[in-house]
Amino acid sequence: MLYTIRDIISLYLGVQKIDESYQRGLLTVDALDFKGKRVGYCWVTRPKNSQILKLADIIVEKDWRSKGTGTLLMQRTLNWARRLKARKIEGYITASDFKETPWVIEWYRSFGFRILPPVAEDHSEAICRLELDLV
Question: Which CATH number fits domain 5-133: 2.60.120.280, 3.30.470.20, 3.40.30.10, 3.40.630.30?
Fold first, then answer.
């Protein structure tokens, strides 16, 4: 069954602290379908006292791709990051990300992300680094 963006009746933000001993925060933005099933999500971590957020993951179920679900998730995530007064958001694209969604680099560019060579701290399979200044 194929769904449209109109099927999403709830996009909500939830902030949770995870493992206080590590002093890390996790921002989760979920997209839900009309039955309340999660059809996509975006996770961003915020190390304590840091103004740089780390884009950990953005996933959209296959039936919901190319319908604006990922764009809606990213827009809400970036709005939330700006309210946090974060200075920058960083992430990376892996070879498997690119293989599954070959348009992903241009999609990130559409939000203003710079596409840079990966650095040592990125995932070992990273093919490029993402950076977006929020201020």
Answer: 3.40.630.30
